[in-house]
Amino acid sequence: MTYPRATIVERLQALVGEANVLTAPADVEPYVVDWRGRYRGAALAVVRPGSTAEVAAVVKACAEADVALVPQGGNTGMCGAATPDTSGSAIILSLARMRAVRALDPANATITVEAGVTLAVLQQAAAEAGLLFPLSLASEGSCTIGGNLSTNAGGTAVLRYGNARDLVLGIEVVLADGRVWDGLRGLRKDNTGYDLKQLFIGSEGTLGIVTAAVLKLFAAPRTRITALAATGDLARAVELLRALKQALGDRLVGFELIGDLALRLSRKHHPDSPDPLPDHPWYALIQVNDSAADAGLGALVEGALAAAVDAGIVADATIAQSQEQADRLWALRENISEAQRREGPNIKHDISLPISAIPRFVDETGAALVAAFPGARLVVFGHLGDGNLHYNVAAPDGSAAECFLDHTPEANRIVHDRVVAAGGSISAEHGIGQLKRGELAHYKSPLELELMRRVKAALDPRGLLNPGKVL
Amino acid sequence: MTYPRATIVERLQALVGEANVLTAPADVEPYVVDWRGRYRGAALAVVRPGSTAEVAAVVKACAEADVALVPQGGNTGMCGAATPDTSGSAIILSLARMRAVRALDPANATITVEAGVTLAVLQQAAAEAGLLFPLSLASEGSCTIGGNLSTNAGGTAVLRYGNARDLVLGIEVVLADGRVWDGLRGLRKDNTGYDLKQLFIGSEGTLGIVTAAVLKLFAAPRTRITALAATGDLARAVELLRALKQALGDRLVGFELIGDLALRLSRKHHPDSPDPLPDHPWYALIQVNDSAADAGLGALVEGALAAAVDAGIVADATIAQSQEQADRLWALRENISEAQRREGPNIKHDISLPISAIPRFVDETGAALVAAFPGARLVVFGHLGDGNLHYNVAAPDGSAAECFLDHTPEANRIVHDRVVAAGGSISAEHGIGQLKRGELAHYKSPLELELMRRVKAALDPRGLLNPGKVL
Questions:
Q1: Under an 8 A CB cutoff, do B192 and A471 touch?
Q2: Spatial CB neighbours of B64, under 8 Å, sequence gap ≥ 6
Q3: What is the mean pLDDT of residues B208-218?
Q4: A379-437 pLDDT, tens per residue?
Q5: CA dihedral for A141, A145, A146, A150, sign (positive or negative)
Q6: Which of A466, A76, A204, A455 is nearest to B192 (CA)?
Q7: For residue B227, how far is the Cα from the chain centroid?
């Protein structure tokens, strides 16, 4: 049985209640614009189902009416994956009402949550059980776990705990035809056929709609140390990472790189910031945690940093002596994005490389950019422990930043060509969405694109799930 | 262009050299029987390509001739996945000659190896660079990394390091039509479209043939402690696991359960074994490692075990005082499989459950089995830290073990019904192969089977890769 497109809104109202089908422009507005205001789309309606059964009914109704669906979590993505196109022919499927913590099993160290649970609520639920859910992102107050899984989110603890994908044991997915695949298993080993959940994680809602997940929990840290180290060049920063991995093992949770200009911008726009190690070209912000309460972590970190100073790897270092000092060191890193926003537009890249390839990449790419755009300023920071750089190109001092953005395609080509040549990725943690769809088509091998299209055709043959994203 | 089936052996000889195409029965014999002698098949030939290009040429030639391929690594699997059927119409594709370590990148903590590298050689290559490749299995001297990835192998360090899947950054795969997908990326973050490598890992050679991989390396442990703890019941063993995770965090690398009967069999058939904690119903063999050389690990483990004794969780415990003592404790666990073999046939199950569900499962399933088979003896051991039990049912003392095996279907139903009812898996780490294909069809939801078949059809539409396995 099929239904005419015109009646889809009425059908959806019957399925989830009129209050949960938004059509008034003012109601729809927050859903059709991404949070940075870079993408604006249009939608037939925004539907907000409150249960997996309702999601399934909505998807089935849309499939029957041949209406496309754009799933949306907290609408905090960086690549426009949750924003529909401008045709106004799609339905936005918001998972925001699905926010139950369905179960927490301390002995199994798992939590089962619905897609609309925000990351912060999830972290808090784990903490209340004395456990840790380690995924941590700038947007954690508003991003949802459904979006985190659909984009395979990264963040600041990947070095130790992996990406969102690595934290998932099972998922529940509404398929393109509205059937529900119950893959909500809380098992650390399960080799019964193909690992289907992997298809849906990171596929940005183009293969199915994640409605719930079973996630791993970890021992909560009971000792935390934050340090800042200054190094003379990137090769030494890479060497420091290696030395700390050996000395600290799994205690090393975060290793964030901050370039000189990134730090200066952070401090310029947040004048209360500390300046503990002035005038070095590169900094590493180091987070070391231990689940043991009293296992000599301070001495271990001090010893490792002292050894790095003695070896000439580190020029200077400081260890936070209180949680407040630690927070202030972390603020230096966390304020960079906001500082850049205040400083004016810049051309952003979210890239990853083999960690060993980063020093040469940064040297050569920086030189090529400055040759192409004299005076261009490089704001380089990111998760060095994961090989992930936020590599941003700002306009020369005094020039019009808006005009500089016109050079985005040329700058992208300079950066991404070198990323790909070095075996890297043009999207480390932000995904593809609509922003990088062209770049994906440009850089991926035809064979890899063909394989992706075959997977898409196998799971969403009519192309109704998040069309125009990724592929 | 297609070639008649009759000429395929000649074509393969032309592609890889006559010496690398085995057809004489004596040469073929070791490849058509699995190592335990449970499966015997037949093959047109065994072909042993020496490079990815040769694998690709072989697969292309077989595709053109409509000849099925059975990939084989070290032929150490437990489920007959690498053994062809008895028709003699398939080619066995042995990856054993592809044993180059292509690269080791210490700063990126990655190693790139070909599929035929044995796990022990890979571990050794990592160790020589001062790093750790943590996958560890009983068959590590002869199993190959290609097989480990194709079966998503588990083993004794999953608690800390995950399954084989979790150790992979990139793979190279020969597809069903002979094209090569180069996914050999050494990146810890890469969100550029669907994560295709996940499809091939754990698919037992039914979707593509893994020819090489980029794998994660870790800081090598410099302190190791092995302990044995005795507990009065399984609920306490689960509680001990939880307590040790909190006290030791990532230092807890292994937590192996040994049931009383499993330990007695191990000791009976290996008379030199120690008997450090006699007469308890359950034992946990505990491995704790630290990459730091001197960070008070001994005191930490002693404190954690003493606290568990004080709390009534542990009845008695012993900590190995030397590497030799540690090896002897580990031998208690490692000798169980061989002891069982000597004791006579038994009905084996490789299952996993949410860890919290294990005590009740073991109680209820044991009671059901003993009710169905009076006097049946349960040999229960395994990787409790991963929720993975090797749950084996031996004939009553004095009865004919061979006859008892006739009850396998009935015993499987008793065990697997309860596994599935408790949210568990009927194959935790050994895979499906041909052994559990019927059980998979019995227990998986029709929807999940349909999704797997769609994936199979998308990647191997003609069904030439390892037919009759998994699905």
A1: no
A2: B1, B2, B3
A3: 98
A4: 999 999 999 999 999 998 878 777 899 999 999 999 999 999 999 999 999 999 999 99
A5: positive
A6: A204
A7: 24
Distance of CA A443 to the CA centre of its chain: 21
Task: Note if the pTM is more than 0.95.
Answer: yes
Interface contact flag, A152 B249, Cβ < 8 Å: no
Cβ pair B381, B336 in contact under 8 A: yes
Which residue, B19, B18, B20, B173, is CA-closest to B92?
Answer: B20
CB contact (8 A) between residue A292 and residue B242: no
d(CA B214, CA B272): 41
- Radius of gyration of chain B, Cα coordinates, nearest whole angstrom: 23
The tokens describing A128, both together, are 């209340």
Return d(Cα A444, Cα B195) in angstroms, integer.
13
Q: Model confidence over B398-408: pLDDT tens digits?
A: 777 778 999 99
Mean pLDDT of all residues in B126-153: 97
Which tokens is B101 given? Answer: 């370590």
Are the beta carbons of B423 and A194 separated by less than 8 Å?
no
Cβ-proximal residues to A384 (8 Å cutoff; 6+ apart), any chain: A237, A238, A241, A255, A256, A257, A284, A355, A358
Q: How far is CA A52 from CA A115, A180, A210, B275, B448, in A?
A: 10, 8, 9, 53, 17
Which tokens is A261 given?
A: 């200009």
Q: Evaluate whether A440 touches A426 at the Cβ level (below 8 Å).
A: yes
- Identity (one letter) of the amino acid at B180? V
Which ipTM did the prediction report? 0.96
**The two structure tokens encoding residue B368:** 């059901």
DSSP 8-state secondary structure symbol assigned to residue A107: T
Which of A119, A106, A221 minimizes the C-alpha distance to A164?
Answer: A119
Mean pLDDT (whole number) for A119-130: 98
By three-state DSSP, how is residue A41 classified? coil
CB atoms within 10 A of CB B72: 30
* Residues 180-239 of chain B whose Cβ lies under 8 A from any Cβ of chain A: 181-183, 185-196, 198-199, 201-203, 207, 218-221, 238-239
Query: Residue A1: its pLDDT value, please?
Result: 45
Asked if A388 contacts A358 with a C-beta cutoff of 8 angstroms, the reply is no
Measured between CA atoms, the residue of chain A closest to residue B355 is A108
Chain Cα centroid distance, residue A290 = 25
Listing DSSP states for A121-180 in one string gives HHHHHHHHTTEE---B-TTTTT-BHHHHHHTT--BTTHHHH--GGGGEEEEEEE-TTS-E
For A219, the closest of B154, B192, B246 (CB atoms) is B246
Burial of residue B89, with CB atoms counted within 10 A of its CB: 0-12 exposed, 13-18 middle, 19 or more buried: middle
